[in-house]
């Protein structure tokens, strides 16, 4: 793990995560946010523990204060140009597990997303003013 | 937070008075599936930067490496051998000091320093800010020296036309496979401090081969900012890219 203070890579992502979640909760007139889910591709080099820690700081004073963050790590999906196989990798080393070829074509696992929100919303239009 | 009406979002609670007395009625939980790209805002800003640079005819080059691989020295060497053929400007990203900016200023070049504090990479918004501080109309070639780091600069597009990774021969020849993200993001790759090759065990063909496998059209160079070996070839590349930009 990087030494403390240099983990700001995750910090800026956590701030963006909180910002997007707030916008979305407001847009959907949510009364509460119960949970937040993020998806982190292995190729981003993002360390989930650091993102978790950064999130706990970044959410202070926002509507996410009560909303735990769940992080799903997305494996790399890639196609090998040599053997043609579609492979799943759990580390950022882009090597075909079948034929050891390097030039893999990336199909997924290289992004970071606000995956979903679990929201409390009103049944009818009644309390709709958030 | 207003418990009565459930307008639980503090931002909003600040913005409206609670004179209402409606009944929140029945509520339920729902899952909003979003998959929203958290790098989208940076990517949008990067596109804007690229357009901005194009308007001013500036070729921007992002230099990335681990600390001390020779980014500032390469800029100095390029400026030296350019001998005025292009007007150079520099954006310096540095964690705490402005030593690198001082080195550039000593060459009489326009430079803007971004002190990132503890942030381990530059982002497009920081570069955007810097672009407005530089005399872009009197710059042909703009170097952006990123923060010393081989991981996250590869995630944050700055809007530069060229992104390059530097690897010094003292760092070991096994680094390319260890940091695939940044090499895939790059258009060129410089093996630096080649004058030190006789003193270290570094097989230059290995990282060059690995880098080309990760990124088929990656331009690779081997150079020394001290002896000057290989700097001319790198310079020709920059001149050609700058020429392609204006035609
Ligand atoms: N022998 C040799 N030393 C070099 C060369 N290029 C840079 N150095 C030395 O390497 C050290 C770091 O060089 P810098 O140019 O400051 O490296 P940098 O990547 O800008 O460093 P940071 O900005 O701190 O990340 C200095 O002591 C340079 O003199 C080179 O081509 N050959
Ligand atoms: Mg430097
Ligand atoms: Zn970073
Ligand atoms: Zn294969």
In short:
The complex is a heterodimer of chains A (130) and B (247). Chain A is an alpha+beta fold.
The CA-CA distance between the termini of chain B, in Å, is: 59 Å
Q: What is the H/E string of chain A? A: HEHEEEEE
Average predicted confidence as pLDDT of chain A: 88
The stretches of 5 or more residues of chain B where confidence is low (pLDDT under 50) are 1-22
Can you tell me the overall shape of chain A? elongated
Low-confidence region ranges of chain A: 1-7, 126-130
Mean pLDDT across every amino acid position of chain B: 89
The helix content of chain B is 25-40%
Domain count of chain A: the total is 1
Count of runs of 4 or more consecutive helical residues of chain B: 9
Number of helices of chain A: 2
- CATH architecture level-2 label of chain B: 3-Layer(aba) Sandwich
Please describe what this structure looks like.
The complex is a heterodimer of chains A (130) and B (247). In chain A, 24% of the residues lie in helices and 30% in strands. Chain A is α+β, with helices and mostly antiparallel strands and 130 residues long. Chain A has a three-stranded mixed beta sheet, covered by helices on one side. A three-stranded antiparallel beta sheet of chain A has the order 4-3-5, with no helix packed on it. In chain A, helix 1 (8-27) packs across helix 2 (48-58). Chain A is elongated. In chain A, 39% of the residues are buried. Chain B contains nine helices and eight strands. A seven-stranded parallel beta sheet of chain B has the order 4-3-5-2-6-7-8, sandwiched between helices. In chain B, strand 3, helix 4 and strand 4 (111-115) form a beta-alpha-beta unit. In chain B, helix 2 (40-55) runs parallel beside helix 5 and helix 3 (71-82) packs across helix 9 (231-246). The longest helix of chain B is centred in the first third of the chain and has 16 residues, at 40-55. The model of chain B is unreliable at 1-22 (pLDDT under 50). The interface between A and B is large, with 57 and 48 residues. The complex binds guanosine-5'-triphosphate, magnesium ion and zinc ion (2 copies).
């Amino acid at each position: 793990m990087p030494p403390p203070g240099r983990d700001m890579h995750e910090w800026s992502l956590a701030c963006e995560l909180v910002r997007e979640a707030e916008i979305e909760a407001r847009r959907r007139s949510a009364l509460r946010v119960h949970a937040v889910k993020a998806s982190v591709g292995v190729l981003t080099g993002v360390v989930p523990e650091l993102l978790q820690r950064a999130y706990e700081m970044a959410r202070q004073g926002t509507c996410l204060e009560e909303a735990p963050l769940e992080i799903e790590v997305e494996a790399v999906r890639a196609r090998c140009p040599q053997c043609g196989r579609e492979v799943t990798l759990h580390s950022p080393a882009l090597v075909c597990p079948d034929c050891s070829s390097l030039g893999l074509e990336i199909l997924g696992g290289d992004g970071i997303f606000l995956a979903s929100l679990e929201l409390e919303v009103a049944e009818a239009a009644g309390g709709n003013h958030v | 937070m207003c418990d009565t009406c459930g307008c639980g979002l503090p931002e909003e609670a600040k913005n409206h008075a609670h004179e209402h007395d409606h009944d929140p009625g029945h509520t339920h939980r729902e899952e909003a599936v979003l998959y929203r790209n958290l790098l989208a805002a940076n990517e949008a800003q990067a596109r804007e930067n690229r357009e901005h640079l194009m308007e001013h005819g500036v070729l921007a080059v992002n230099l990335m490496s681990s600390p001390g691989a020779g980014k500032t020295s390469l800029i100095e060497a390029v400026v030296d051998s350019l001998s005025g053929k292009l007007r150079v400007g520099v954006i310096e990203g540095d964690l705490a000091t402005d030593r690198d900016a001082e080195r550039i200023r000593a060459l009489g070049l326009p430079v803007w320093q971004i002190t990132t504090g503890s942030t381990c990479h530059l982002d497009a918004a920081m570069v955007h800010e810097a672009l407005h501080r530089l005399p872009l109309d009197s710059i042909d070639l703009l170097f952006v020296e990123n923060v010393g780091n081989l991981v996250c600069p590869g995630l944050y597009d700055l809007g530069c036309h060229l992104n390059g990774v530097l690897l010094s021969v003292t760092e070991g020849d096994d680094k390319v496979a260890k940091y695939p993200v940044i090499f895939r993001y790059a258009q060129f790759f410089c093996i630096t401090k080649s004058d030190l090759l006789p003193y270290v065990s570094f097989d230059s063909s290995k990282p060059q081969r690995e880098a080309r496998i990760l990124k088929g059209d990656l331009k690779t160079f081997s150079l020394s900012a001290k002896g000057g070996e290989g700097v001319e070839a790198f310079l020709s590349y920059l001149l050609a890219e700058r020429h392609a930009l204006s035609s």
